[in-house]
Amino acid sequence: MTNKNFIAGRWCGGSDQIADINPSDLDDVIGNFAQADANDLDRALDAARDAQDEWAGFGLEKRYEALLSIGRDLMDRSGELGELLSREEGKPLAEGRGEVYRSGQFFTYYAAEVLRQMGECADSVRSGVDVEVRREPMGVVAIITPWNFPIATAAWKIAPALAYGNSVIWKPSNLTPAVAVKLSEIIGRQELPAGVFNLVMGGGGTIGDLLVGSGKIDAVTFTGSLNSGRKIAARAVPNLTKIQLEMGSKNALYIDDEASVDVAVDCAINGAFFGTGQKCTASSRLIVHQAIHDEFVDRMMHATVSLRVGHALEERTQIGPVVDQAQLEQNEQYLKLGKSEGAKLVCGGDRVKRVTEGYFMAPALFIRGDNDMRINREEIFGPITCVIEADDYDHALALVNDTEFGLTSGIITRSLSKAAHFRRNAKTGCVMVNLPTAGTDYHVPFGGRKNSSYGSREQGTYAREFYTQVKTCYTRAET
Ligand code: NAD
């Protein structure tokens, strides 16, 4: 049976289909998924346009209830849906379940935001005139999401889009269509006007490109790689479509000479390898003060080799497979490149055999890295990290900031003054002190600087900058 697209309130086939394969067990086909074509997309775009006004005028309590119900369903079913997510994407069960639960929290958070939409009033400079500043929906919003947080990224975009009265066309990644269908089923069961929410599955260069280039959308929000982000910007801007891009990074964790080594190793292992290193917030550069370097490297190496790599659905597994063959090969190319550039691979990097055939790879630790090496400049997106030795704090901070990216950064230190200086001077959108570079909350803004992000912030109340437009109204009451 083929899983279908959801267009104008109905489940519909597509012109083609793809198979969804479990990266922990290549014999396990999760299902077949329809691929939307240009006609499907056109129907979705028209339905979204037709339904949007009705949705915006739907009444706040009904919108609140719909979002709350989606959120509760996700949280109640985080066990079952988390297992599907882990089976499809390869992250360990605890991470899969946690991601689904968090996705529910995005919906309940934005349910509450529906009732908290306050405008602004002002006196005019002209007497007898009042000024009201309102926020109104953007209209039809295209949402394009990656595979690595397939349900969380979708939730943190779909929830605010709907909360602020927009209709949605969602194109998920073709590597994770199963959770996309499940989330769409949950949304489809709510009493929304048909066409407010649409799911179109397919490739980025095909249906994604058509969606982004369509003059029928008012805004596009994208999370994915820098290359795709650049293409999307080039496609959307000629139509003057509003864009929000969240892209890759090359996050650094700095380990200071005044750090607790226990905390440093915990944070480095978590940030570099959990989620198989396939996180935009992953610690792919470990910048270590020379005074603590040897001790840290020794402890980090032991912690890395003891990580349990295996099938994502086995409870003991800490590191699941990488997502697909192409990503595995890309990781191997970077390992080769790192060695040829002069970094020393002290552990990991090998393919790992397990009972089932999957894309298993031992987490890899490079040392003696230099910040100019390509392995320290390009996003690898795998379980590979590299230690770079720093002479002192100032040198370390310069290295942290010497990158085209700027999503997250972290410092491990007991020094309050260095922590405070780092918070102010790290050129990233998020800064972590004595915490992993990965792992953020849902009620506060998330996003980066430089080539990691473009446009306004996601999450928390900041999301309304993207999903609404401002109207300034002048009223002369006495005529
Ligand atoms: P990707 O760029 O290959 O694909 C992301 C999505 O964009 C997919 O749905 C894909 O089909 C679509 N797409 C690709 N090219 C397109 C085009 N030309 N037009 C329209 N759509 C297109 O990224 P990925 O491999 O799925 O995800 C990994 C990347 O995502 C990494 O770079 C990671 O850092 C980034 N990411 C960033 C954040 C963040 O918030 N900054 C969060 C998660 C992942």
What does this structure look like?
It is a single chain. This protein has 479 residues and is an alpha/beta fold. The protein folds into two domains: 2-247 and 442-476, Aldehyde Dehydrogenase, Chain A, domain 1 (3-Layer(aba) Sandwich); 251-433, Aldehyde Dehydrogenase, Chain A, domain 2 (3-Layer(aba) Sandwich), CATH 3.40.309. The chain contains 14 helices and 21 strands. The chain has helices at 38-56, 60-76, 78-89, 93-114, 152-163, 177-188, 204-213, 226-236, 261-273, 293-305, 325-341, 393-401, 416-425, 464-467, and strands at 2-3, 5-7, 10-12, 16-22, 25-35, 120-123, 129-137, 140-144, 167-171, 197-199, 219-223, 242-246, 251-255, 283-289, 344-347, 364-367, 384-390, 408-412, 430-433, 453-454, 468-476. A seven-stranded mixed beta sheet has the order 15-16-17-14-13-18-19, with helices on both faces. Strand 13 (251-255), helix 9 and strand 14 form a beta-alpha-beta unit. The longest helix is centred in the first third of the chain and has 22 residues, at 93-114. The N and C termini lie far apart (66 Å). The model has no long low-confidence stretch (mean pLDDT 97). The protein binds nicotinamide-adenine-dinucleotide (NAD). Nicotinamide-adenine-dinucleotide is lined by residues 144-149, 153, 171-173, 203-205, 208-209, 212, 223-225, 228, 231-232, 246-249, 280, 379, 381, 407, 452.
